[in-house]
């Protein structure tokens, strides 16, 4: 079985050819053009066009004019695009990184009863990343007048591929509109937003397929009617690829943002909104937490502050950061360049550097960024662990972090757990391929998918006390920053 996987991610279009029995055949990635947008907001049609064009180029590169299935993937429902009665965009697509709605979410979060009630029913804290809050902000500021339908990135991709306005229950559970317990649109959330359920996509299962439309078929160079698997969420597909629905494995993906996840057999929520819980696949749920500042913080530090463009390699940076670790006196970095998700869900929060000295160099700053991202993730881990009941056996890690062995060693030592990589820099695409095989009947259950191991990193016991001291200082500055001191 040959599957074309298309992913519309936060910053790029991706395409993979996957053949059952062989695995990934070829992969093509293209960053969205400047004309499409700037990561915060996009021209929705432009990024879908660029995603399909990436798929077409991959097919042409391999001389392929027929596939058995097209499988789609995108970000969780952490975005918003408003559609008219013909389901054409009447707004730009706002991604999770767009914090312009923070003035609205900050207002509603002050109602602690509402904050907790919505979280307990939807699994989603009040935060600017969720579709519901982006929509409420638009409505309260007069930006929703022409909207007949409410979409996010995944269902708009499926709409462009098939002409059907549908979302998997799993993907929709990260919109803030879905009741985590009934698996239908939440009545209180609908009332709060002032919308009817008919404005939202049809809810379908994760193995639902629809025929490829004539328009999309022409753009891809494939046969009209080819089955298209409903768009999955990248985080859920990462969990599938990691084999983490079958065992006590925590998956951690570190890309533009970062998220850690662990599978559960029922919805699992904290007493107060701090973690999130979404629907997985095969009657499983995913509990976890996410941070807004990860790879974007590293890029920002390298390009905008340190001025790196050419002439210095990642290996040079890693070696310099390791020397900074040995000195042990780097600044402390709070990585909230795109606001805060877990643990505080404060989208108005900003990044900060502490303990700067005149003798700090560029490698100290780079090290601080790597460490700050991991410390924010450690905060998430410490909150997530009590609600799932037991620690994971190991962490399966994927994403851009895999390019830096030094960062991976830091992660193992800071979490105090073995860190495994599977070599899948684009695990969400592989997970989507597995779901395609499951929908076609070639895989009985995602629980049968076994983890693959490429590299293993053990905690360095000699660094434990050092990281504990640094983490205590990070938490001190975090508390002061949160309190406005």
UniProtKB/TrEMBL annotation:
It comes from the Bacteria. Keywords: Kinase, Transferase. InterPro entries: ATPase_NBD, Carb_kinase_FGGY, FGGY_C, FGGY_Carb_Kinase, FGGY_N. Residues 251-439 form the Carbohydrate kinase FGGY C-terminal domain. Gene3D superfamilies: 3.30.420.40. Its EC number is 2.7.1.12. Residues 6-238 form the Carbohydrate kinase FGGY N-terminal domain. GO terms for molecular function: gluconokinase activity. Pfam families: FGGY_C, FGGY_N. It is an enzyme of class 2 (transferase). Belongs to the FGGY kinase family. PANTHER family: GLUCONOKINASE (PTHR43095:SF2), SUGAR KINASE (PTHR43095). This is Gluconokinase. The lineage of its organism: Bacteria, Bacillati, Bacillota, Bacilli, Bacillales.
């Amino acid at each position: 079985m040959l599957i074309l996987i298309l992913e519309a991610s936060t910053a790029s279009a991706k395409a993979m050819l996957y053949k059952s029995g062989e695995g990934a055949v070829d992969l093509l990635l293209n960053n969205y053009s400047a004309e499409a947008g700037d990561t915060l907001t996009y021209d929705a049609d432009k990024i879908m066009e660029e995603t399909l064009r990436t798929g077409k180029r991959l097919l042409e590169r391999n001389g392929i004019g027929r596939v058995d299935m097209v499988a789609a993937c995108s970000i969780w429902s952490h975005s918003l695009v408003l559609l008219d009665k013909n389901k054409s965009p009447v707004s730009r697509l706002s991604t999770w990184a767009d914090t312009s709605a923070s003035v609205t979410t900050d207002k509603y979060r002050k109602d602690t009863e509402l904050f907790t009630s919505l979280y307990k029913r939807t699994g989603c804290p009040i935060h600017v990343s969720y579709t519901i809050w982006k929509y409420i902000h638009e409505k309260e500021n007069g930006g929703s007048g022409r909207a007949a339908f409410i979409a996010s990135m995944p269902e708009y991709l499926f709409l462009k591929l098939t002409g059907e306005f549908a979302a998997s229950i799993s993907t929709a559970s990260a919109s803030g509109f879905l009741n985590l317990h009934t698996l239908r649109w939440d009545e209180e959330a609908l009332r709060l937003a002032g919308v009817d359920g008919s404005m939202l996509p049809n809810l379908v299962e994760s193995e639902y397929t629809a025929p490829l439309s004539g328009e999309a078929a022409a753009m891809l160079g494939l046969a009209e009617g080819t089955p298209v698997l409903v768009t999955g969420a990248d985080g859920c597909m990462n969990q599938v690829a990691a084999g983490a629905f079958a065992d006590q494995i925590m998956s951690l993906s570190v890309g533009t943002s970062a998220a850690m996840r662990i599978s559960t057999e029922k919805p699992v929520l904290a007493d107060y909104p701090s973690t999130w819980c979404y629907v997985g696949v095969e009657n499983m749920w995913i509990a976890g937490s996410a941070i807004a500042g990860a790879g974007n913080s590293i890029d920002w530090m390298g390009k905008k502050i340190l001025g790196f463009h050419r002439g210095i390699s990642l290996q040079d940076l890693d070696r310099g950061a390791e020397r900074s670790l040995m000195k042990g006196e780097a600044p402390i970095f709070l990585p909230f360049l795109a606001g805060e998700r877990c643990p505080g869900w404060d989208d108005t929060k900003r990044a900060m550097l502490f303990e700067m000295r005149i003798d700090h160099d560029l490698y100290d700053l780079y090290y601080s960024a790597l460490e700050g991202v991991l410390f924010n993730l450690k905060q998430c881990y410490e909150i997530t662990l009590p609600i799932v009941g037991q620690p994971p056996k190991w962490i399966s890690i994927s994403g851009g972090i895999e390019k830096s062995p030094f960062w991976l060693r830091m992660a193992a030592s800071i979490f105090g757990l073995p860190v495994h990589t599977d070599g899948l820099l684009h695990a969400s695409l592989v997970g989507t391929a597995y779901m395609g095989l499951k929908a076609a009947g070639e895989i009985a259950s995602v629980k049968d998918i076994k983890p693959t191991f490429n590299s293993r990193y053990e905690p360095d016991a000699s660094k434990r006390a050092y990281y504990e001291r640094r983490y205590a200082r990070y938490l001190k500055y975090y508390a002061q920053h949160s309190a406005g001191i």
